Amino acid sequence: MSNSKVVIITGVSSGIGRATAEQFAQRGCRVFGTVRNIAKVQEIPGVTLIEMDIRDEASIQRGIQTIIDQAKRIDVLVNSAGVTLLGAMEETSIAEAQTLFDTNFFGLLRTIKAVLPHMRTKRSGRIVNVSSVLGFLPAPYMALYSASKHAVEGLSETLDHEVRQFGIRVALVEPSFTKTNLDINAPQTASRISDYDVELGVVSQAIQNNVQKAPNPEGVASTIVDAALGAWKMRHTPKGEASLLAKLRRFMPAGPVEKGLRKTFGLV
Questions:
Q1: How much is the average pLDDT of 258-263?
Q2: How far is 32 from 51, CA to CA, in rounded Å?
Q3: pLDDT value for 1
Q4: pLDDT at residue 250, as a whole number
Q5: Could you tell me the residue range of the domain that residue 41 belongs to?
Q6: Residue 222 phi/psi, 5° resolution?
Q7: Which of 80, 132, 141, 145 does the annotation list as catalytic?
Q8: Does the active-site annotation cover 149?
Q9: Catalytic residue, candidates 148, 149, 156, 176
Q10: pTM of whole model > 0.90?
Q11: DSSP 93-120
Q12: Domain count, the chain
């Protein structure tokens, strides 16, 4: 075990994070998974749970130091923790936007800043940031979530340029709809503007339909493990819809892509 990769994954209480932690453990890695409240989380075989709130810098410093004390190094960081929000942009309060960015972007930023000094010391490491197809495609009624993932993509590409001199590489994983509680129980904006009600209802139902028929998180988890342990490349899209959307965005004219995207969300 002493020569195994030491892996940290944020947000392993459920969904993609939990499935990823399980797969890293099955690959023989020494896995640490962060959760906000250990008392509320079921144990994961082969995974050491660390209580850490990525919205709190002091909590992150304590969590990372605990891992360093136990494992002496960090080889892989997977930033998986995230939240979502459904509603028209005009309905979204500044406070709601700040709360979402505090987890999806600043939480990721805080965690990377805490881990990088340890990776630089060892002159090696891999950082995998879980983005979304919404990091390169728009989605109606998910403006702030999309914006946060676009921000993650920009940060990741820039950071990779800066840290490769230390033997550290940064990668993105961009899943599409996945059957997790994050999408099934997506919170909605507190405020409502009635002009948006009809379309928002259509989009909400389309999202639920797509999530119900979406693959389970194990496929995304497998892509994350490959991004962390395999040959480096910047972007990784799980097989299926995510890979198709990435190809369409790259090779198809914008008009047909937009039309197809609106159809996916029930809009004409």
A1: 88
A2: 10
A3: 43
A4: 81
A5: 6-264
A6: -60, -40
A7: 145
A8: yes
A9: 149
A10: yes
A11: -HHHHHHHHHHHTHHHHHHHHHHHHHHH
A12: 1
